[in-house]
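Work package 3, deliverable 3.1, input record:
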Amino acid sequence: MFTRGPAQGIRLLVAAALALLLMVLDHRGDHVAGIRSALATSITPVFYVASVPTSLYNWFTQTVASRAEMQRENEQLKQEQFSYRTQLQRLTALEAENARLRGLLSSARKTRGKRMIAEVINVDLEPTEQQVLVNKGSQDGIYEGQAVLDAFGVLGQVIEVAATTSRVLLLTDSRHAIPVRIERTGFNAIAEGTGAMNRLRLNFVPNTTDIREGDLLVSSGLGERFPDGYPVGQIEAIRRDTGEAYAEIDVVTAARMERSGEVMLLWPPQTWQPASSEAGVAPSSASDKPAITPATGPANSPAGNPAINPANTPATPASTAPASAPAKPKPSSPAGSIGEAAR
Amino acid sequence: MMHARHGTHWVILSFLFALVLTVLPLPTFLNQARPAFVVLTLIYWVLALPHRYGIFAAFAVGLALDVITGKMLGLHALLLSVLAYVCVKQYSRVRMFTRPMQAAFVLLLVGLSLLLQLWIENAVQPVSIRASYWLPALSSGLLWFLWFPLLRGLRRRLQIS
């Protein structure tokens, strides 16, 4: 029995040296990404077991909800869906018009890339890090650095990918920053996380800048990591100190991080080529460089349109069936029956 | 080593259970004071079976904890190895402690690991903490009164040795 004596000290030294090596390698880049990904994949069941009580609770509350309540909710959802569909019809018409005008100007235009819905299976909102875990991983084509949205705005980006799960760093993490644009004026800035719930900070905005409380911030797309034009947040408070060169600006995020149940993963948009398709639909390609040759998509993407993927069930990874996509952009026929009804 | 190994899978299961409790979704106020279940479990097994579970077991558990909490790989491996070292060195003494003294020992160990974690994370990237950062040490100390009889009952019933 070597429970005493120098053997323990040597063991500790070995363990500590190994741990330090791992930390340095992990911090200095992707040297241990393989190990990390393999470990994360093998430990995934723990997350599913941990989410059982929540799922049971959700299932229970859904099952015993009263009929009247369900009907009311159903009615409300139908109304919402109707209004969204009418808006979408207008959007597709505008998109087509935009594409045509850009075609006339012969300038490249970005269309929407592939999308996928994922469920949040674990939330980790410690003061030192703000992350969530979602139920899509490398099997679904998720990659590191991918942009993640929720229903209200930009949520964060993927920082770690396992086979069936991936970890999302939220905008509010103090290690995170996102390039933004003030929508009213077009002024560019960087929004940094503060580590506090739903709070960001704008740094290095000069005191004299035209900026007001309530201004909307959208992603500017300058870092080429987040697509441009998605809501990031709203200016909550501005403190101008005449002695300081820069104003202190607090931002509240558009994404509602404490209640995000489902998130949307985005793939980079493809550059639209006027010559490649007269209908204004870009070929689906996962590469972020301009896709000159169509139909070079990856194995799991359909050789068709950039479609919204309704796969929110974990059992059907990457089922990007275009036939079941409810909101596929069809610029060639902008006025559907519902669109007509709304006019 | 020629020890009769019995019930290893139960020990692994107890660690998996502790890992599940570590990531179990909790309301915010409980989340801040979530006890360090894995550390408690590790301290128990090292104190109870120091010839079987020591620094290397702690290292492996720490790796799992790193991956599951998304921390730097090796961070918890280092912290838990240090804790296991202290426990292995002191197990004969700690076993003689009364329960409140053991709880205080656990509180100190969890506090120590939180402090080390803060140092390492600060060295890599400055982090800001609130007073609630230290709550897990307190809650872990309190939970020891429940966790210790639970794991001891498990060990005796299943004759883990």
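The mean pLDDT of chain B is 89.
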